[in-house]
Amino acid sequence: MERGRGRLHEIDLLRIFAAFSVMAYHYLFSSYADGTSAMHFPQVDVVARYGYLGVDLFFTISGFVVLLSAWDRSPRSFVISRAVRLYPAYWIAVSLTAFVSVAFSQGRFPVSLPQYLANLTMFNSLPNIRNVDVVYWTLWAEVRFYAMILVLTFIGITARRVTIFLWAWLAATFVFQAGLLPHATDLVLNTQFSHYFIAGMALCLIHRYGATRQTVAIVAIALGNAIYRGIGFADRVGVRYHTEIHRTAVVAIIIAIFAIMLAVALKLTHHLGRPWFAILGALTYPLYLVHAHIGFIMFERLGDQVNHVLLVAATMLLMIGIAAALHYGVERPLAPRLKRLLDRVLPGRPVHALRK
């Protein structure tokens, strides 16, 4: 997430906003709507129900910053950087969530040993092994995107090659959606969310080289497909929770995501960034990993004993505290050690500098 040698601090702010949106969605809407919690917040759930679109913002940001980070990397360096970024906090989060689920969920969130071990790999969705926590499904989408970027690092990342790659991925997405490709190809194409990754990568090109007809066209087409698929996804969310997800609101939020990220790509938001946003951004990933099932269990166990508003507020603060502990107590000390280990065991030239 670089600008020269610095950070795009406004993206750190967007990340924490996306994380809080997803947390609000789970705590203030979905936990009650699916029967996980008896705590109902009718005054705010009409807004919180759209918080799931924070994931869409996350994917767009990933398309942008992961390509930006991978630009001058070797395949080996890219693999190490992603492993170091993803796994230390994830291993602890999976372990903590599994322990709390087994010890305190009273069977609501069962976790078996094979399931737990499979989850540690982050590839458990491949053999269709259930996630330890509901939010981990997004990691499988991210890992598949990283595989796309890894291919590009082997080819050599240039503006022309990335542009060709994006047109090809966009075209394959439409061919799949037309029913002309086998269902198994979606494992690679990731068509439910490919438009966000594609748009993010095109916006990265705009950020580096300025807008061109091709990159603007890719973003516009990706936006159209994001709206089309987003409406279908919203309808399914409404059916699942027996409620109404207004299409107009979903379309407006998706357009806002693209507009905000375009402003970042065009460097119109540079003056809004603050260095301390990086502190918030650093907590985003661990906060996302730990908040869901642990929070649901707290609601289930304490919901009839504590004021509901206070319980939600306290749970959010607790999750932020756990996220901070994971970042400063796990990610920071373990990341360089994991990097050194991977440097030794993976063939190739050692990685002397690891960028985020």
Topology, element by element:
Blueprint: E1 2-3, E2 6-7, H1 9-33, H2 45-48, H3 54-70, H4 75-104, H5 113-121, H6 137-155, H7 159-177, H8 186-189, H9 194-209, H10 213-241, H11 247-265, H12 277-302, H13 308-345
Antiparallel strand pairs: 1-2
Helix pairs in contact: 1-3, 1-12, 3-6, 3-9, 3-11, 4-6, 4-12, 4-13, 7-9, 7-10, 9-10, 9-11, 10-11, 12-13
Descriptive notes:
The protein is an all-alpha fold and 356 residues long. It has helices at residues 9-33, 45-48, 54-70, 75-104, 113-121, 137-155, 159-177, 186-189, 194-209, 213-241, 247-265, 277-302, 308-345; strands spanning 2-3, 6-7. It has a two-stranded antiparallel sheet. Helix 1 (9-33) runs antiparallel to helix 3 (54-70), helix 10 packs antiparallel against helix 11 and helix 12 crosses helix 13. The radius of gyration is 20 Å and the shape is globular. The model is unreliable at 1-5 and 352-356 (pLDDT under 50).
Q: What's the story with the biggest beta sheet? A: 2 strands, antiparallel
Mean pLDDT rating: 94
Low-confidence runs (pLDDT<50, min 5 residues)? 1-5, 352-356
- Spatial extent as radius of gyration: 20 Å
* Euclidean distance between termini CA atoms: 6 Å
Shape: globular
Q: How much strand?
A: under 5%
* Percentage of residues in helical conformation: over 70%
Spatial order of the strands forming the largest sheet: 1-2
Which sequence of SSEs, written as H and E, runs from N to C?
A: EEHHHHHHHHHHHHH
Count helical runs: 13
Find the count of extended strands (DSSP E, 2+ residues): 2
Structural class: mainly alpha
| Oligomerization state | single chain
